Amino acid sequence: MKKIYLSIAAALCISTAANAQCGGRYDANVFSNITATSGITYGSNIKYDASGVQPLTLDFYEPTGDVATARPLIIWVHGGSFISGSSTDADVDTLCHRFARKGYVCASINYRLGVTSYDSLGFIPAVIRGVQDLKASIRFFYKDRLTTNTYKIDTNNIFIGGSSAGAFAALHAAYLDKTCEINPYVPQHELDSLGGLSGYSGNQCYSEKVKGVINLCGALGTYGWLEAGNMPFCSMHGNADGTVNYSRGPVLPSFPVHILDADGSRMLKAQSLAVGVQNDFYTFYGADHVPYAGATAAQVKYMDTTVNFVHDYLLKRMGYSCTISQAANTPYGTASLYSYTGCSTSSPLSCSLTGIKHINANLIQEVYPNPSENVINVVFTNNSATHTIQLTDLSGRVVKAAVTTQATYTLEKGNINAGVYFLKVSNNQGEASIQKIIFN
Fold first, then answer.
1. pLDDT in tens, 255-267
2. Model pTM?
3. Based on the number of CB atoms within 10 Å of its own CB, is 319 exposed (0-12), middle (13-18) or buried (19 or more)?
4. For 279, phi and psi rounded to 5 degrees?
5. How far apart are CA 198 and CA 184, in angstroms?
6. pLDDT tens digits for 189-216?
7. Full set of structural domains in the chain with CATH
8. What are phi and psi of 146, to 5 degrees?
C-alpha cells in the first residue's frame, strides 16, 4: 500500500540530477512529496522461539516522481531492546522522511524480535538475529539492482544505521566480522545453529558491503571489534544515557538481572582515534537515551541536530564538500581503553553468567490475561511462599513493586503507560523468574 506524505518544508524544487550539488540534491530538501511503500518482503527466517517461520518486511521511502536511476540508500533499524518496536516507529519514520526529502531513498526494516530468556544467553542471540536480518536486507537491494532494478539503488552508496538497539545491529553488522570474536559468548555449535554471522534470512550469495554506519545511541560488545582499515562511521550519544552507557557499562542497567556490558559511543571514539578510523562524533550534552524521539519542542530540536549531523557525514562519505550543517563537538570526559588482544583470548565483554540458572526458576505458574487492558493476574507455583514482585519498563526503570504471601497477585495497570514490561518474581532463596507482559 502506497501513501503520499506532504512535506512541511517550503522547498518545492525537485532535482533529478543523479549527483549531489551543494545547495541541491542530498544537501537540501529538494523534494516536497514522499512515497512510502509498506510491507515489502525481503526475506524470512525461523522465529526466535523456533515456533515457525517469520516473514521479514521493510518499508521503502522515496521522493515522489523521482527519475534518478542510481540513488544512495540508507537502511534504518528501529530500537526496542530487541523485543519490541517496528519499522513504523516514529523516530525512524521521521528519519526516513527527512532524508528522502533530500533525495536519498530509505528502508526501515522489521527484524526478528524476542529473547528465549531475559539474560545474556537470551539477548546475545537476539542481537545476532538482528544482524542477520539487517544483512539480508542489504543483500536484497544488491539482488534487486542486479535483477529487476525496481528500487534504483546506487549500490556503491548503501549506508546502514539505527537507533538504540538498531544502532547495536548496525555496528555489529559492520564491525563484528570474525566468528572467533563472538565464540567466547556464543559457542561455535550454537552460532552454527543460528546461521553464523550472516545468517540465512534471504538473498544468499549477494554482497553485504556498505559505505558507512550511522550509530545513534548504540554500542559494540567490545571496542576491539573496531579495527584499523574498517569503514568510517558517525555517532551521536547523550552523555547522561541511562539505557546504553555513553562510555562503558551495563546495557539496561536497572534491569532486574545484569545482561551484559558494552562499549558505548565514547569508547568507540577513543578506539577510532587509536586505530585510525574516521569517526564523526556528536555528544548530546546532558541528554538521556534517544533524546530525538518524540514530539516536544526539545525532542524536535534534537531531531534537527541529528539530521544535520548525519547529513554532513553522508555527504563526506560520498565525496562532497558542502557547508557544514552541524559541527562535531568535544566528547564528554575521557575514555580508558582496557586491554584487548582479539581472538587469541576471551573478550572482556561481561555476560554475567552467574545466577542465570536461578533467574529462570519456575516461580510463575500462570500470567493472565496477557496482554491486558487493566489487570493481570500472577499465579505462583508455590502458593505458600513469600514473593517479591517488580515491574520494569524497557529501559529497566522499576515502575511497580510489591511483596505478597498470597497464591495469586493482581497486578493493576494504574497510571503507567500502555506498552511492553518485564515482570520479575523472586523468592527468599534468591531464585527469580522473568516474563514479558503487555498492557494495551
1. 777 788 999 999 9
2. 0.81
3. exposed
4. -135, 105
5. 18
6. 888 888 999 999 999 999 999 999 999 9
7. 2-344 (3.40.50.1820), 361-439 (2.60.40.1220)
8. -90, -5
